[in-house]
Amino acid sequence: MIRGLYTAASGMLAGQRRQEVLTNNLNNAHTVGYKSDEQALRSFPEMLILRMRELQGVEVDNTSVPTSRGAVPIGPLSGGVYTHEIIPQFATGPITYTNNPFDVAIAQDLKHDDGRVANLFFSVRTANGDTLYTRDGRWMTNAAGQLATYSGDLVLDQNGNPIEVDGRELQIQADGFITLTNADDPADVDFVQLGLVMVENPSSLLVKAENGYFRTVDGQALAPIDPADPAMEGWHFTVAQGAIEESNVDVTKVMTQMVESFRYYEANQRVLQATDRTLEKAVTEIGRV
What we know:
By secondary structure, the protein is an alpha+beta fold. The chain folds into two domains: 2-44 and 79-87 and 250-288, Helix Hairpins (Orthogonal Bundle), CATH 1.10.287; 95-245, no CATH class. The chain has three helices and 21 strands. The protein has helices at 2-27, 202-205, 251-284, and strands at residues 37-43, 47-51, 55-60, 63-68, 72-77, 81-88, 95-97, 104-112, 117-125, 131-134, 139-141, 147-149, 154-155, 169-172, 177-182, 185-193, 196-199, 206-208, 214-216, 235-241, 243-245. Strands 8, 9, 10, 13, 17 and 20 form a six-stranded antiparallel beta sheet that branches. A three-stranded antiparallel beta sheet has the order 14-15-16, with no helix packed on it. β18 and β19 form a beta hairpin. α1 (2-27) packs antiparallel against α3. The protein is elongated.
């Protein structure tokens, strides 16, 4: 019965953690570029239960004498479940068009002609020099005339350098190719390739960081793609200027999951309470017999 308490308690803890994950998803339902999380549960290893020193009667001089027969297997016992990991879901969120030239969205993730898929991310450099990745394309120019996020982090080009806007007109093509035109001199034009990184299995390579960013598991920076590279032949994607990618949280689904999580927690709580009452009876009533 004591083991039953532990099993029910582990289920309650897993249910509580799931409720926290779902609440965080709901809180970020309107966060641009946010990727929802899913909880992965795993059961504790099963334990083999044995009945130790089972006594068996042996006839000695017409008298039954108890002797030990050793351990007798009863069967396996599960130890309950626990939260193994929290996995971000990288499905593309709804695209909203704002007509702001400094809003950029990855409207279509990478897809190959042979059916393979991958995810794209913008590269940014934080104030401490780390290169991180995001789907939030709400940008602006900082005091130095560089393209930056709302958090003040620098948006990087294909070579890992900040993009110098300097008051010029910004145009971004569907392949991430940027044209910077001097409004006073239309012949003064610079061309830059947006720093887009390709991740074929983001769930195993990327983890969430601060401000809605992602970082690699090993902390190493990823090499941006070059759409003109022959290795990119067959891959297709779309970058949309004047648009943002909304959160991919499905509010209706999350609300349903929260109810399920509450019922799951409640069921384990009742098992724990029932086990506790059984132990109470064993101590207060059976012990008097």
